[in-house]
Design brief:
Layout: E1 2-8, E2 12-13, E3 18-19, E4 25-26, E5 29-32, E6 55-59, H1 63-70, E7 83-86, E8 98-101, E9 104-111, H2 116-122, H3 127-134, E10 139-145, E11 147-150, E12 155-159, H4 167-175, H5 177-183, H6 187-193, H7 200-210
Parallel strand pairs: 6-7
Antiparallel strand pairs: 1-4, 1-7, 2-3, 5-11, 6-10, 8-9, 8-12, 9-10
């Protein structure tokens, strides 16, 4: 499990909107603070950033899938991630897990719900929906201990959360709640164990999804 690439992004003007989704400034070593990388810009502070979503990570194993889907070559950071990691993915990473990179200690906080800007930036109308359906969303970290890390360092697992609710589990639930719950009867018990880790927004989204009241319109094709 390695940090293969590390990058930040600057706000770009796409005429109809602005976004720092593409991370194309590559770092070999960096300081990571409570709010993530100081060099990383955020266009939409309402829905992105903050201590709960300080650092975004993605599995490099997905890049071949997305290159085929989009029909183009992608550089690391094209999925919006700060950390491009090998040896881990949504099935192996669980909410609440604690990881170390260099002297930085990170806790997995939540999956990324795909934003409609992903489709707009990559000019592929069904990209957001495809990420949602596949569950290959990437995940956010909160920073438990500030420090420095560098490309090529090992990702160390310090603690596995006892709830054992993977990022993929949460994505599968969100995609088709009834199907997922019929096969995972203890899901609600696991969520209760994670109330201190999941953000209030995520908890609210889960509650609304359980009631079939969550607005899924932004997941649809443009």
């Amino acid at each position: 499990m390695l940090l293969v690439s590390m990058q930040v992004g600057k706000i770009k003007d796409y005429k109809k909107f602005k976004s720092a989704f593409i991370k194309d400034i590559y770092l070999q070593n960096a300081f990571v603070g409570i709010l993530g990388f100081s060099e990383n810009e955020i266009a939409d502070m309402k829905n992105h950033g903050g201590s709960q979503k300080a650092v975004f990570a993605n599995a490099i194993s997905h890049y071949e899938i997305w290159e085929k889907f989009l029909g183009k070559k992608l550089n690391y950071g094209a999925m919006g991630e700060n950390l491009s990691l090998s040896g881990v993915d949504e099935k192996s990473v669980c909410v609440g897990d604690i990881h170390r990179l260099g002297s930085v200690i990170l806790q997995v906080s939540e999956p990324r719900l795909p934003c409609v800007k992903i489709s707009k930036v990559h000019q592929k109308s069904d990209f957001c929906a495809e990420i949602f359906e596949s569950g290959l969303s990437g995940w956010y970290y909160r920073v438990l201990q500030e420090g420095t890390c560098k490309v090529g360092e090992k990702l160390e697992i310090l603690e596995k959360n006892s709830a054992k609710l993977s990022i993929m589990d949460l994505n599968r639930f969100f995609y088709k709640p009834k199907d997922f719950l019929s096969q995972n009867l203890n899901f609600k018990e696991k969520i209760e164990k994670l109330r201190d880790i999941l953000s209030q927004n995520w908890q609210k989204s889960i509650d609304l999804r359980l009631k079939n009241q969550y607005d899924m319109s932004y997941m649809q094709k443009l």
